[in-house]
Amino acid sequence: MDDLLLEFLTETNEHLETVDVEMVRFEQDPNNQAILSNIFRLVHTIKGTCGFLGLPRLEALAHAAETLMGKFRDGMPVTTEAVSLILTTLDRIKDILGELERHGVEPQGTDDDLIASLDYMSNASSHVQAVADTPVQAPTVGTLVHQVLERELKPGEVSLDELERAFQEAPGPDDGNAAGTLVYQVLERALKPGEVSLDELERAFREAPGPVPASTPMTQAAPVVQAAAAQKPSKKDAEPSESPEGAEGISGKVQTIRVNVDTLEHLMTMVSELVLTRNQLLEIARRNAEDYGYKVPLQRLSQVTAELQDGVMKTRMQPIGNAWQKLPRVVRDLSNELSKHIELIMQGADTELDRQVLEVIKDPLTHMVRNSADHGIESPAERRAVGKSEKGIIRLNAYHEGGSITIEISDDGKGLNYAAIRKKAVERAIVSESELERMSDAQVAKFIFHPGFSTAAAVTSVSGRGVGMDVVKTNIELIGGTVDIRSEQGRGTTFTIKIPLTLAIVAALIVSSKDQRFAIPQVAVSELVRVSPISEHSIERINGTPILRLRDRLLPIVPLSKVMRLSESEDINTGFVVVTQVAQQRFGILVDGVFHTEEIVVKPMSSKLKHIQLFSGNTILGDGAVVLIVDPNGLARMVGSEGQSDEFQADLALDQAIAAAEELTSLLVFRGGGDSLKAVPLSLVTRLEEIDASTIEWASGRPVVQYRGRLMPIVSCDDELEVRRQGMQSLLVFSDGEISMGLAVAEIVDIVEDKLDVELLAERSDLVGSAVVRGRTTEIVNVAHYLPLVLETWSRSEQRAKQGNSLLLIDGSNFFRDMLVPVLKASGYRVQTAATAQDAARMLSSGSQPDFIVADLELPGHSSFAFIATLRADAQYRLTPIIGMTLRPDAQLLALARRFKITEVVSKVDRRGLLSALAELSGTLEEAA
Amino acid sequence: MKAMNTVAFDAPKLFAREAEFITVTVAGQLLGLPIGRVHDVFVVSEMTKVPLAQVEIAGLLNLRGRVVTAVSLRSRLGLQDGDSTGRRMAVGLEYQGEAYGLLVDEVGEVLKLNPDEMQPNPVHMDRRWVNLSQGVHQLQGQLMIVLDVDAVLAFVSEREAA
């Protein structure tokens, strides 16, 4: 194809994109002359070039559109119909351009329909105006038309009489020029394909039926007005004056040159190679201590390479606005189609990201905006009914954050219909009803990413066919990004997309597993933890599955050597845990060693190896070795799929931890005698041990084991379970200070986070009651029951000596009271309990005088603070130490606690913290005494 | 670089009565690769194993800054992988736009042979071998199997096979 034509195509396509956007802006802000003249100039440029290149179809279309826009410029009111018509014309021009690009010639066909409508539209104005104004002010036709037109056009009826009169009056004797123009116009038109001769127009004009509704086929009405078009003398004058303006505009911004994308890609590859070579050189320099004088130039080379890399990367960077360019038009068309008022607000359009990434997210973004417009924003009537403004808002926001870009798409619509999603999820058998019941809304929201999932009541042409969101998610995850949903019923929905800046070069952490090195992209890594059996962080196992306790949260551990099948050994306990966060999923990758971070150039995996979802690519390190890049997404999928749960359930466990943490208790589930499932709050358990039963010694019939240099009594968790004499014995170790007790269990099953709802209080003292844990009836063990069984040991406790301090425990939860009381008693306190602040107040007023008060700060309705306030106001209790317990000791709560003069705040699950706080306070108490 | 590497593999046939083969040995068997398909012959120094990869893939190699997938010819022929001591040789090939290194025991000389003298595969030859062989040349004292390079590299990944 002709170079000139190619140039024209690229340029015109760009112009059209701009016109699209500008047109929508213009519609909203019709008085903005700057926008209009910009549009006008662009269309004019297109028209001019078409004429130059001999493209009659395009030229005719552009000309007609330009004429209409010229009318706008002259002050014709901007109507939705007119803008729609121009946009349709632009679409037609784009179609033709597409054909042109493929075949090198304009396609066959005519555009009479559009041109006629355009001409009708542009002429209707002058005509009607003429009609209305002539009787009063015939000569000033050009300026007054417009106000009239709006009135006339909207009702949509122009009587033929009026037209007739206008026609006859307009080219009156006092307007000689008009006649001249008429001739010119006729000639110009006659040249164009598909144009109607003046005679025919005349005839059509005469024959046209009486009242012409605007909605009748345009072609019919068009001739009428076309004839009248003769009246606009100003147009021709305007045109030539426009050309120099346009030329100026172009010459003014010749700051850029067009470069073929392939050239850029090649340049990028070369720079990547250069980076690799530099890394290799640096590695050699690092190994050789001797400086042969090359180190300084090498430094320089390194620096220049970095700058070059930076520069080339920049050439690939494009503002995200490029991906958004189509959206205003999309939203406009949708709002017309759906009869909704929607405003699209775009922020951060100049945020730059890699061209490649941009291409990938373009379609997902459009899709999501469509979704927001169709499903999210309600109809004006609905919005009014709920007291929102009729105009819905879709907001796009993009910004840099760390090494990634965050894009938010939010609407102020009705939000996700969780009930409908739940219903649909069950219908489609994605989850069972019982599972669903336990899912939080946040988890439920994720179902919309499930393939073929749509809750739209009616399938519209826009969306609701259930294709899309899963594709959106896949596309975004493909480039290492994540999507998140936040939705509030009635308030709107926000999608948050996080994507890496570039795909070509990433910072990666180089780790080793079984003598093989791997690269883990740094974006996914949130922290590194060194683990060993003797250090603070050690790997624990539940039924063989490794777990790390990290800041009171359980982190599933994936030994890299195991997933890579590099080693058969299951129990690796030393190394580093790379804490990884992928979307909502957090897990730790256990590796043997961690080296350093390196900027690596991602090379794609060979097609033979692409099916391995654990790797996203490979790279050559500075020392020349090829290493595989671990794909955290793939790993997360593997973590999720192990144990036959799908992705959603993988999210489930984590979401449960995140959502409503105050309602969830970590329970250690184990098996007692006769296969019964039992559970005990994890916070009470100090360690899990598996010991060789032969090491259990039987001292006067009671089993004890040497544990950490001391004798630890062992108690069976129920009567039916015998402490083993051979094989391995699982133990739950409860300890306090230096005293420990081992609870023998048949098998440790799992750790679950679940809402603890103790359903019935069992008759047996070894149980608190039973509860449904993960859908199974589970007996909740009362640790207090076992303590007397080993009381001998406990009673030897030195803390026993502190007997005498009395304590009032106020806690709304039976469960916690039952758990804490034995512990506190064992530590030598006389404990009284109260379930509510009122109970406590009654107890105090009935004469009990505790030395300490331990109160749950989360009693319903802040009653604990009210209670403490009254206590502090009472002289008798002004100085009584009060320990507040909370599940979430955040700053706000601590400040509140200080204000209420609460002596100490401890975490509810930190039993040891409570005891040491008490011990400290009793120390001060004794001193004071 | 890419353009340089792409050589039409049937080009030699058009020109001469003689076709050139690079000979390699695997488990004592002489095999020939059409010279037009071979980019280079190199010694394998350091190879990165790919966990979870299919058995035919021995690992990834760094060949002058390019990552090359190493394919074991032994395992393609259904043979046990030999002891990996000593230096390992590889033949650089290109297949569907990607670079491969075919691991062999030894690389021998270049032979000029008349394609007309090539004999079809013996009927009772192992199925695996038949699939990879275009025919047999009778040399003095031994037979040379003409390897079908495309067939050698046309094994599917496990997932596709499943």
TrEMBL record, chain A:
<dbReference type="Pfam" id="PF02895">
    <property type="entry name" value="H-kinase_dim"/>
</dbReference>
<dbReference type="Pfam" id="PF01584">
    <property type="entry name" value="CheW"/>
</dbReference>
<keyword id="KW-0597">Phosphoprotein</keyword>
<dbReference type="Pfam" id="PF00072">
    <property type="entry name" value="Response_reg"/>
</dbReference>
<dbReference type="InterPro" id="IPR036890">
    <property type="entry name" value="HATPase_C_sf"/>
</dbReference>
<dbReference type="InterPro" id="IPR004358">
    <property type="entry name" value="Sig_transdc_His_kin-like_C"/>
</dbReference>
<dbReference type="InterPro" id="IPR002545">
    <property type="entry name" value="CheW-lke_dom"/>
</dbReference>
<feature type="domain" description="Histidine kinase">
    <location>
        <begin position="263"/>
        <end position="503"/>
    </location>
</feature>
<dbReference type="Pfam" id="PF02518">
    <property type="entry name" value="HATPase_c"/>
</dbReference>
<dbReference type="InterPro" id="IPR051315">
    <property type="entry name" value="Bact_Chemotaxis_CheA"/>
</dbReference>
<dbReference type="InterPro" id="IPR037006">
    <property type="entry name" value="CheA-like_homodim_sf"/>
</dbReference>
<feature type="domain" description="Response regulatory">
    <location>
        <begin position="806"/>
        <end position="923"/>
    </location>
</feature>
<feature type="modified residue" description="4-aspartylphosphate">
    <location>
        <position position="856"/>
    </location>
</feature>
<protein>
    <recommendedName>
        <fullName>Chemotaxis protein CheA</fullName>
        <ecNumber>2.7.13.3</ecNumber>
    </recommendedName>
</protein>
<dbReference type="InterPro" id="IPR004105">
    <property type="entry name" value="CheA-like_dim"/>
</dbReference>
<feature type="modified residue" description="Phosphohistidine">
    <location>
        <position position="44"/>
    </location>
</feature>
<feature type="domain" description="HPt">
    <location>
        <begin position="1"/>
        <end position="100"/>
    </location>
</feature>
<dbReference type="InterPro" id="IPR011006">
    <property type="entry name" value="CheY-like_superfamily"/>
</dbReference>
<dbReference type="GO" id="GO:0000155">
    <property type="term" value="F:phosphorelay sensor kinase activity"/>
</dbReference>
<dbReference type="InterPro" id="IPR036061">
    <property type="entry name" value="CheW-like_dom_sf"/>
</dbReference>
<dbReference type="Pfam" id="PF01627">
    <property type="entry name" value="Hpt"/>
</dbReference>
<feature type="region of interest" description="Disordered">
    <location>
        <begin position="208"/>
        <end position="251"/>
    </location>
</feature>
Automatic annotation (TrEMBL), chain B:
<feature type="domain" description="CheW-like">
    <location>
        <begin position="18"/>
        <end position="158"/>
    </location>
</feature>
<dbReference type="Pfam" id="PF01584">
    <property type="entry name" value="CheW"/>
</dbReference>
<protein>
    <submittedName>
        <fullName>Purine-binding chemotaxis protein CheW</fullName>
    </submittedName>
</protein>
<dbReference type="InterPro" id="IPR036061">
    <property type="entry name" value="CheW-like_dom_sf"/>
</dbReference>
<dbReference type="GO" id="GO:0005829">
    <property type="term" value="C:cytosol"/>
</dbReference>
<dbReference type="InterPro" id="IPR039315">
    <property type="entry name" value="CheW"/>
</dbReference>
<dbReference type="GO" id="GO:0006935">
    <property type="term" value="P:chemotaxis"/>
</dbReference>
<dbReference type="GO" id="GO:0007165">
    <property type="term" value="P:signal transduction"/>
</dbReference>
<dbReference type="InterPro" id="IPR002545">
    <property type="entry name" value="CheW-lke_dom"/>
</dbReference>
